């Protein structure tokens, strides 16, 4: 079942002048959940469900395998993987992908029409959510996490699961820093473009400094794609495995429509996290993206189109 | 054993990637269709089309509803993707969509040098307020006019993709054949249908209505192909709800010469073609069927 489930917003947290986090009841949301209008019983076992159920979350699939007429039981202990995303639906407006910044929340920056509408939402309001989707991050020890701007939203749950990672938080200014408080007890490095707090300069420049002193087994990154490309190149030079979480215009979210394709990889299903081997072959990475009509355009054009 | 034929085009197997599935980039089409006999592109229009807002696709365990809205970058841009698909050496069917016979003919001429056949989409059910898709395909005379014009514009085979949402699909197929069509693809998505989220009290799709595909529509597709087979001599690409090898066999028996695969890419995963192909071979071996040709239209005998 790939249908939005209506959930109530439990809490809205103002993170900084541009970003807010919306908490909702995640226990209702999991693939396999059915919309109110359709039958909860399972007519057939399809392979994608069996495959998906190998991840941490999803349905109690013993019922599927035995093909009993049991209603689908949702496992309450389910936990989306770090790096997965959900599709948030504002009925009558639009539906957009957002990384889960907590197990049960998305963090949103005010940018275009949709996010402006989201900023009007209060505790008790209802939204539609479907997912979680995507592959998530593979966990490795001795890691460096590099986030640019809102990128930390998709890396946050990874940070919490990694063993003692070092983190670079990059932002334009002190006021736009995200989750600095949340990770204050971690090995946190801060870089701001204007130097209003921490290192003055880009996250990539700070990363270069840090790499001079320490060797890492893996680098995880999410943020503006130009930044991620630079980080990937640094990793290639230093022979460090790199994992980057990409953003593309997503329609279905479950791998049929092809809107989010980067060459022969789908961001919604094969990604959003890609490893060094995949990034090396990905011509579009750091250069091209595709708006709604599917035309190959520069990242700059895409970014402008995206924040309409 | 699996080799098949549509018009003058030889296929290594009868499975064809249907239009609208994973076809934004040439690389993605090539990857998902690596075990397919041929590849149909997304429906391309003269000018770029943004398509509908999200949600555009939803799925239950039996069916999908989609209202992508014919989004595509326009013919000029899309030729680049077709060039990439061509590297697979598999036959490529270029799907085109337009509002008038002149537009279809122009599209066919533009795409003609890059594809092995043209598929005329007069059956998309999720556009309103424009005379495009099934609004045209419901009228035998309009279909005839378009087919004739396209036929006079290119020298490659012309396939017409039909809507099931008519009183008599065989009549439309006959009209297409009389006008010079070389093959029929049947069926496009059903409906349109609608799903309402009862908590939100709103249709889920932004377009409200969407074409229905997936396992639930197979009986309609089988019946329509059966009817078309009785009324025309040109070959049929049977499409709609084919998920397993046995479904494909059933479609051939209904009268299809080749089988379109779309939603199965979700239900069976991105290696759906390999799986369905293997299941067909298994069934054919077990039932001592040596070639696809032996069973095409078998249900009519």
Task: Tell me what you see in this structure.
The complex is a heterodimer of chains A (308) and B (301). The radius of gyration of chain A is 19 Å and the shape is globular. Chain A is 21% helix and 28% strand. In chain A, strands 10-9-8-7-11-12-15 form a 7-stranded mixed sheet, sandwiched between helices. Chain A has a 6-stranded antiparallel beta barrel with strand order 1-2-5-4-3-6. Chain A is built from 8 helices and 17 strands. Chain A is of the alpha/beta class and 308 residues long. Chain A has 2 domains: 129 residues, Elongation Factor Tu (Ef-tu), domain 3 (Beta Barrel), CATH 2.40.30.10; 164 residues, Nucleotide-binding domain of ferredoxin-NADP reductase (FNR) module (Rossmann fold, 3-Layer(aba) Sandwich). Chain B is an alpha/beta fold and 301 residues long. Chain B has a single domain, classed as Aldolase class I (TIM Barrel, Alpha-Beta Barrel), CATH 3.20.20. In chain B, 33% of the residues lie in helices and 19% in strands. Chain B is built from 10 helices and 16 strands. In chain B, the strands form 4 sheets. In chain B, strands 3-4-7-8-9-10-15-16 form an 8-stranded parallel barrel, surrounded by 7 helices. A 4-stranded antiparallel sheet of chain B has the order 5-6-14-11, with no helix packed on it. In chain B, helix 3 packs parallel to helix 5. Chains A and B meet through helix 1, strand 4, strand 13 and strand 14 of A and helix 1, strand 5, helix 2, strand 12 and helix 9 of B.
Features:
heterodimer, A: 308 residues, alpha/beta, Elongation Factor Tu (Ef-tu), domain 3, Rossmann fold, 2 domains, 7-stranded mixed sheet, 6-stranded antiparallel barrel, 8 helices, 17 strands, 28% strand, globular, B: 301 residues, TIM Barrel, 8-stranded parallel beta barrel, 4-stranded antiparallel sheet, 10 helices, 33% helix
